[in-house]
What we know:
Elements: H1 37-50, H2 86-89, H3 97-110, E1 114-115, H4 139-149, H5 181-191, H6 204-212, E2 219-222, E3 234-238, E4 258-267, E5 270-278, E6 281-288, E7 308-315
Parallel strand pairs: 1-6
Antiparallel strand pairs: 2-7, 3-4, 3-7, 4-5, 5-6
Amino acid sequence: MGIEGAKPLAFPAPNSAPPTCHACPLARPGESRYAGLGVFMVSRYLFLGLAVGLAGCAPPKPAVVSGALPRATPGFITRDNPHVPKFATAGWEPFGRADAVGVALGEWRLFGQLVDDDPPDTRPHPTPDQKPERWPGLWQRIGEYWWVGQDPSADEVAWTGTHDAQGNVFDAERDGYYAWSAAFISYVMRVAGAGPDFPYGASHAIYIDAAAGNTTKLLTAHRPREYAPNLGDLICAGRGSGARVHYEDLPTAHVFPAHCDIVVAHTGNLLSVVGGNVDDAVSQKHIPVGADGKLADASGDILDTRYDWLVVLQVNYTR
């Protein structure tokens, strides 16, 4: 579903050279979602070995479901949370923009540097064995996203990419119930050192509403037409019934389906963003922006018609 008044989106030709980026290794817009998986299959266990000690995040929220969901309680965690590595709770380093971007890019590389610039829900539905979230070495990593990002008392902390809280393997067709995209964002913020003031949650709506309602000092909500996202900021769109939610409706009375990505690079007229549970993996996509870096052009028309952009969340890093 597009945004009213939005202009058609044009990407570079498939064989054109990708833009130069000094912030991160950009994959070419339109590249196959499985680009880089050959390298991944050789090196994923090396990455996992280096990542020992980190762990997961996010609750039951159908990613594309009609109807409002009951409001969840934000998972504000105290500094003695045993699930979180000490370096992320003891203030060894300030909460930094470069750290959040680096963590997100590291997870993207772990999943094989997948890129998906297609309109949402236009790719063929994968078979269970084609879903990276169910592959050995990666379903455990998603379990770490849940374990680190959520309140230790929440049932969701025991979820993985394939298991429920009791350790039962759930059917691949039910993975929407175990959607982990918000768990991924919560994990990135936690490991980057956001501390107890970030509104961690299993639904993106938890921290979208916290920002819009001014209940967290770490996030500031902006209209997509009025603010140019910086590296480390979050850009969010409504999904399913959430596409009917507008900026003026925030904060809402109920959790709604949404998706947020973290900005990892800005090159020319494109943002590179990374998000979880996209193609059942951590994936990257490219978002067109105007000359001033905003999601809209000078006349206020949203440039990207693929998504119902709802809000840009400015993350108030310490450095």
